[in-house]
Amino acid sequence: MKAEKDKVVGFDYSLTVDGEKLESSFDSGEALWVLLGRGQLIPGLEAALEGQEAGATLSVDISPEQGYGERSEGMTQRVPKKYFQQAAKLKPGMTTVLALKEGGHRAVVVQKVGMTTVDVDLNHPMAGKSLHFDVTVNAVRDASAEELEHGHAHPPGAEAH
Ligand SMILES: [Zn+2]
């Protein structure tokens, strides 16, 4: 079966940026399961998986525009410390997670820590980076009705939700 929109794809991957391996599911044992074509992955990785079958191995270079986007200037924002989960531990250069007023979370890079506020760069930490993925496709299958309704894949053994 070929991977295409609304098929579920299980795969292992490692991510290398600027010559440094940042993540590897081969090491962590946490393979990804995604419902293709639903925005669960960056565009470049979605495109690379399209048409692949179980057993395929891929070596993929992804430009910033097909990854996490280009960096934008003027994305610095001063945020009260109460919006951070571990404000006391923040240092410039760290990536942390910011709870958004409108709900949800966002990864940000700390620029400056003040008495009551923190300056953060709202660009995604991977913005402007060229990404290299090594991928092994483990499985391609039809999505269940529930997965299609939820808009994401349910990994084997996932709890009902
Ligand atoms: Zn679900």
Automatic annotation (TrEMBL):
Alphabetized Pfam families for the sequence: FKBP_C
Sequence ranges assigned to domain PPIase FKBP-type in this UniProt record: 6-80
GO BP term, pick one: protein refolding
Subcellular compartments: Cytoplasm
Role according to the record: Also involved in hydrogenase metallocenter assembly, probably by participating in the nickel insertion step. This function in hydrogenase biosynthesis requires chaperone activity and the presence of the metal-binding domain, but not PPIase activity.
Name of the protein: Peptidyl-prolyl cis-trans isomerase
Family matches, as InterPro entries: PPIase_dom_sf, PPIase_FKBP_dom
Keywords of the record: Chaperone, Cytoplasm, Isomerase, Rotamase
Catalysed reaction, written as an equation: [protein]-peptidylproline (omega=180) = [protein]-peptidylproline (omega=0)
Gene Ontology cellular component terms for the protein in this record: cytoplasm
Recorded family membership: Belongs to the FKBP-type PPIase family.
Gene Ontology MF annotations: peptidyl-prolyl cis-trans isomerase activity
Residue ranges of the TM segments: none
Enzyme Commission identifier(s): 5.2.1.8
EC main group: isomerase
Annotated organism of origin: Frateuria aurantia (strain ATCC 33424 / DSM 6220 / KCTC 2777 / LMG 1558 / NBRC 3245 / NCIMB 13370)
